[in-house]
Design a protein that fits this description.
This protein has 13 helices and 15 strands. It is of the alpha/beta class. The protein has a single domain, classed as TIM Barrel. The protein has an 8-stranded parallel β-barrel with strand order 1-4-5-6-9-10-11-15, surrounded by 8 helices. Strands 2-3 form a two-stranded antiparallel sheet. Strand 12 and strand 13 form a beta hairpin. Helix 3 packs across helix 5. The chain is globular, with a radius of gyration of 22 Å.
Length: 391
């Protein structure tokens, strides 16, 4: 179990499907263009985050290509990049992974995304039922891992057949980059405990997360394996609790009941994900029951598929809630907030000190007057201002 006093490993999110200030509105939207996403990645790289998650899906820019571009513009940031079994062969993904790991000097993390939308998967040529997708993924990663660890693999399975598959260059990380995965169904958990290094859950209340951690940990132990745990959450952190809740209300101020109903109907129709059903059950599509656990707010899930909850509050409040997750075994957080550039700064500047996460103070300290003087000289055109040292 993770000690709540240990600094938590904190990643951020790259919004490769777009960003914005409000949910359910086209006002103040931002396109996922490379310049803006680079701004986020470079800010996160120097603010103390350990890495970023790049999502996958038909609405997102391709994660391996985007990670390659951002790796060239950053120094320390790790990239949690999606592999979706079935969209390409294990050998092809092995080449993608080892190449990206080498050009980033060992900064690749791999996120296994089996998929939760049968319609989207069919568009990618994947026509498998829910549990079959995990059986297919297990065969896929048998070949994938063998290639990365040995450089050669052959396999004759129900779904995957490979004859003398070869990998020309190894990854920097040995025996391979870490594997992450999130899935709440029994089939998903059974797959996870046999293959992955870190199991991810969406931001359910601590009691539910504790139950899931215990279930996964016991299943992993039954296979002689040890799995660590992470959580995917949005964050709305302000200097006071009151300001944070006001910001949460503003985020959904443009949502009307019709938009919410349409989104919830679409999630039910298009998804067979057990995790998505658990997210939707937290709020039931209703505005009047959004605080589903102390400071855990489900407003984002009214219209956003996937991660739909946010921790809302002051730095001390949110840090206390995160420690509750740490106490049940969570050691990694993948965070986000709207818009992602500004909220990356807010979380780092307000929350990280409470969590004991160190920022790169050498690069962030400019030895200038800001915050240390009561009157500012104003640069080369500041005039004859009298500068008084502050206490």
């Amino acid at each position: 179990m993770t000690a709540s006093s240990d600094p938590i490993n904190f990643l951020w999110f790259i919004p490769t499907s777009g960003d914005g200030t409000y949910l359910g509105s086209t006002d103040l939207n931002r396109a996922p263009e490379i310049g803006y996403l680079t701004q986020i990645a470079q800010a996160v790289d120097r603010l103390g985050y350990s890495g970023v998650l790049l999502p996958t899906g038909v609405a997102c820019e391709e994660s391996f290509v985007m990670a390659s571009a951002l790796a060239a513009k950053t120094e320390k940031l790790q990239f949690l990049v999606a592999i979706r079994p079935g969209t390409a062969s294990p050998a092809y993904y092995a080449r993608l992974a080892t190449t990206l790991d080498r050009i980033s000097n060992g900064r690749l993390l791999l996120n296994i995304v089996v998929g939760g939308s049968p319609a989207e998967l069919a568009g990618d040529g994947i026509h498998l039922e829910h549990d079959e997708r995990y059986a297919h993924a297990d065969e896929f990663f048998h070949v994938f891992e063998e290639l990365l660890e040995k450089g050669v693999a052959s396999y004759d399975g129900k779904y995957i057949k490979a004859t003398d598959a070869r990998l020309g260059f190894p990854s920097v990380q040995t025996p391979r980059p870490p594997l992450y995965f999130g899935g709440s169904s029994d089939a998903g958990i059974d797959f996870a405990v046999g293959r992955v290094d870190k199991y991810l859950t969406w931001g359910e209340p601590p009691v539910q997360v504790a139950e899931k951690v215990q279930k996964v940990r016991a299943a992993a132990a039954g296979k002689g394996r040890d799995v660590s745990f992470g959580i995917r959450l949005h964050f709305i952190v302000r200097e006071t609790d009151e300001e944070a809740w006001e910001a949460a209300d503003r985020l959904i101020r443009h949502l009307d009941d019709e938009t919410i109903a349409e989104a919830q109907e679409r999630f039910v129709k298009e998804s067979d994900s057990v995790g998505q059903k658990r997210m939707a059950a937290l709020h039931g599509g209703r505005r009047d029951k959004l605080e589903v656990s102390p400071n855990l707010w489900a407003g984002i899930g009214l219209v956003r598929a996937g991660a739909g909850t946010a921790l809302v509050g002051s730095p001390k409040t949110v840090a206390a809630r995160l420690r509750e997750y740490q106490e049940v075994g969570i050691d990694t957080v993948i965070g986000s907030g709207y818009p992602h550039l500004e909220e990356a700064y807010r979380v780092a500047e307000l929350l990280f000190p409470e969590l004991g996460i160190e920022r790169d103070e050498q690069r962030l300290s400019f030895n200038n007057e800001f915050g240390r003087r009561k009157v500012f000289a104003g640069g080369s055109h500041g005039g004859n201002l009298k500068v008084v040292s502050g206490s």
